[in-house]
Amino acid sequence: MMKSTSSAFARIKPSGIRRINTLAAQQPDCIPLALGEPDFDTPPAISAEVAAALARGETHYPPNCGTPELRRAIAAYMARQGIPADPEAVTVTAGATEAISATLAALLDPGDEVIIPVPAFTLYEAAVHINRGTPVLMSTVEAGFQIDEGELRALVTPATKAIIICTPNNPTGCLLDAASLDAVAAVAEEAGIFVICDDVYNRLVYEGPYERFAVRHPELADRTVVVDSFSKPWAMTGWRLGWVSAAAPIAAEIAKAHQYMVSSVPAFVMPAAARALEVDPTPMLDIYRARRTRVLEALDKMGMPPAVKPAGAFYAFIPVTQTGLGSEEFCERAIVEAGVGLVPGECFGCAGFARLSYCVADDALDEGLRRLERFVASLRG
Ligand SMILES: Cc1ncc(COP(=O)(O)O)c(C=O)c1O
User: Fold this and answer.
1) Is 62's C-beta closer than 6 angstroms to any atom of ligand 1?
2) If I label 234, which of 49, 63, 109, 204 is the partner at 20 to 30 A Cα–Cα?
3) 228 CA → ligand 1 middle, Å
4) What ligand 1 atom has the least distance to the C-alpha of 120?
5) Which residue ranges make up each domain of the chain?
6) Per-residue DSSP letters for 312-359?
């Protein structure tokens, strides 16, 4: 008899978003409003740095946590955002994806519980399983996608190790309000747990008030882990570049996880990453803002408004059960029958909704919305 593969991985399903994208790709002429990535190319000023780095021969193993120049640039960038960071406590990672995975690897012992307010980015739950932890999902739907202190406190057990928060949120575009951030702080302080802040959309905010946990609660810097990424603000998803910053003792453990799992990010992309930090992403934000208006108007017209008006990121999270379909069926049939791709809420731990992404050019967005309108009308008979 042969031994089995890891039981932790047996619990994880391949990403549902990929499955939907594959289904959409198989459908001729489908308009995918499903992708969580900017449709823009990386600004040329950033990309140009790669050729220059290669010409300088920057093709050798770099320092594990990133070049001193890039770590200093990130720390200075964070300081400008109101989050003091020591360059030595910054690790440059293969996207926020690795930052989150390395953080959980560094923090968790087998059986530790991690509270995940849902809907949430799929990675969190999988990464907790991979690290032999137990995800504890906390639905925020009833609380309007905010975090209720009493509910959060009720989920804390002696095994609770951390909570992962994300604002602006994927998939809702919601910003956590001050009361939510304070609830997390109060519970984290009482229970001595870590707060992992997935802040990858922090530059994509349309209207405030917006506050980051690390800025509002500097007194908890000893247990706060800040994750950020080059992917979203500078249209650099394919570069696979992000970072994580934490207090020195935690950062040292995360650096070990990173060192043994990844070693480092490529040497010749790091000058470009440092350059990106100086590039203003506002022109792209303005385009998303205009698209958001188009999306909200169209959804309103078809009687399918999002659960909340998105104030950040580039998603609308739409309740779909009023059409008589569950969200998986809604999204699958929208692809096959109408040629428009959306992601079912199940992919974010929250059935009954579909995520629409407006990371597509205006013409495609308008056509995708027209198709969605026809599809919804056909369901209503
Ligand atoms: C909330 C959230 N966190 C992290 C990531 C991963 O980003 P990266 O490309 O930096 O790995 C994504 C990507 O969609 C995301 O939506």
Assistant:
1) no
2) 63
3) 9
4) 1
5) 7-42+281-380, 47-276
6) BTTEEEEE-GGGTS-HHHHHHHIIIII-EE-EEGGGGT-TTEEEEE--
pLDDT-based confidence at residue 35 (cuts at 50, 70, 90)? confident
Which ligand 1 atom lies nearest to the CA of residue 36? 14
Contact present, 94 and 238 (Cβ < 8 Å): no
CA of residue 97 to ligand 1 center, whole Å: 6
How many angstroms separate the alpha carbon of residue 52 from the centre of ligand 1?
28
pLDDT tens across 350-371, in order? 999 999 999 999 999 999 999 9
Ligand 1 atom at minimum distance from 100 CA: 4
Q: Which CATH architecture has domain 47-276?
A: 3-Layer(aba) Sandwich (3.40)
Integer-rounded Cα radius of gyration of the chain: 21
Domain 7-42+281-380 has CATH 2.60.40.10: no
**Taking residues 25-34, what's their average pLDDT?**
92
With a CB cutoff of 8 Å and minimum separation 6, the contacts of 281 are 203, 204, 233, 234
- Three-class SS of 181-222: HHHHHHHHHHHCCEEEEECCCCCCECCCCCCCHHHHCHHHHH
Tokens of 75: 């720390």
What is each CA distance from 193 to 3, 28, 122, 161, in whole angstroms?
36, 48, 22, 5
171 lines ligand 1 (CB under 6 A): no
Whether 93 lines ligand 1, by a CB cut-off of 6 Å, is no
